[in-house]
Predict the structure.
Amino acid sequence: MKNLKPINQKAGRIEAQIRREQLDVVGLESQPPEGANIPLGCSLVFFPGWEVDSDGGTAGLCQPVERDLFDCHLACFWPAHVPDQLNHSPDWTAKCASAQKDWRKLDLVFP
Amino acid sequence: MTVLTTEPLMVETPTQLALREFHPFEASGARYVYLVPSAGIFQLDEPSGAILDVLAQGPRSDDEIVGALGQRFSEETLRDGLTELQQIRVIGDVGAPREQVVNDLPPEGFPLTTMVLNVTNKCNLACTYCYEYGEDKIVDTTCSDQPKFMADDTARDGVEFLLKESGPLKVAHLTFFGGETLLNFPVLQDTVAYARKRAEEEGKRIEFSLTTNATLLRPEIIEWLAENEIGVTVSIDGPKEVQDKMRVFHSGKGSYETVQPKIKELLRVHTSRPIGARVTLTRENLDIHRIYKHLHEEMGFWEVGFAPVTTAPDRDYEIQDEGYVRMLAQFGELARDWLEHAVENRHHGFSNIKDTLEEIHKGVSKAYPCGAGLGLMGVSTGGDVALCHRFAASDDHNFGTVADGIDRDKQREFLEEHHIKNKTDCHTCWARPICSGGCYHEANTRYGETQAPNLHFCTWVRSWTHTCLEIYGELSERNPSYLARFDA
Ligand code: SF4
Ligand code: SF4
């Protein structure tokens, strides 16, 4: 923070929280940065998951993260955190030729 | 179906920003905000202070703010300032809802940290203002079925109760209270020995303390207190003419001459724990400087704490408006004095300020005014567990018995009813993170119900909290390392 200076302990915690919220999306293959919010996926129980495993890592998943993304998107038997390509969002990945490179182009969908 | 792209949305009307909930204060020439309800404290630089000044005149868009201050600060600085002020929620969209009062209850089985054992409900003094015997008593102990003295067995049950209910905590506190505690010295001795042994077996430690009027101190008692490292608080009002006005024997004779030499002896011999004085302030007894000087400097108490008397509204010793103004002014002066000592890392005995500063330092935002019924409970002479020592033996504020444990349903009900979310009068008050409505006993005496916020105290609570914030801000500038003492 440039203009404000945290003075008491609570202010320090508020500042840390704000800093966390400003972190960019980071690859979870590497050690997640301190304070990163690891998303809890749909898949901790049912499927190895397109997000993370129960320890917050992706390295141990059975398939690469981009593969899982499409797995959920196309064929998931469980209501996953991705649009339903069969019924509502057939074009959702149209701008994303290669998930590894273009995943930022995948956007939110509002029915 | 709509697929949104990452292009920015077109916003037709610029968002109007407005001030949100906070309390501003100044210290050492710098400006600060105390955030409500989060209780964080931030120091403002000049541009962010100027932004708040502009918004104090009414809602503005960010462009308007930048325009208004463009002569004084660069646009980049102002935009940064606006972002940061929004991030800490000192400002926000004009229509944004107020911060909700959270309504979560403490977790089930919250551990007990402090148990107050009322070892007797008899007293050899007859202080006019006493909440236990005076006009505002909750329980008439002269005709209740509670024993006059706590029995050894009950006290031992109390120890077991504390060990069990303190759950995972390694250290628990046991405070002896009365009546006059020392009227039941045999039980104190037995209980301390028993508690030490049992705590050791459980791998815990129990710290002991007691409150006494000092009339019954004798050399062997003093020695026992010192040997056992019992923290001692002496209830005393000040120099002779002050003490003898309210703190009298049943005959009406003042108690100063009796207690003065005994206290001297206590302070001389008992050096294993700091010994404090606790003063009850009344309308007639408000010369706080003089009392402080007498008790700390002349008598040698390590600490002196002051509390205004708890009374129903019409008692003639009740402190009234002008009395509060006087009290506050003197508290303020003692607080400044405390600050000057703290800046030089020296001890000062004014204890009221320390608890508040610790809460400010940590940024506590309370759902309950104190630990009563949660981490602290009182036990009557018969072994009933109550909200706190001031409610001991009251059937209406009972939470079980030491033998049978805490009645968790009753406790839950109490915590539901007394949560700050129900004190709607307090929802717009900036002091609520620290005050949270104030003492249940005070409320019960004043309004006949523990749930009521102590609205007769608000001006005083806010002024005192404001003073403490200023002291905190100044200390954080002049001797920030001192604040580490409040870290624990
Ligand atoms: S009792 Fe008064 S000072 Fe305390 S929180 Fe409520 S409104 Fe504020
Ligand atoms: S209810 Fe009042 S007397 Fe009892 S512990 Fe709380 S603040 Fe103290």
About this structure: DSSP finds 15 helices and 17 strands in chain B. The interface with chain A takes residues 1-6, 32, 35, 38-45, 47-48, 77, 80-81, 84-85, 87-88, 360-365, 472-473, 476, 487 of chain B (CB under 8 Å).
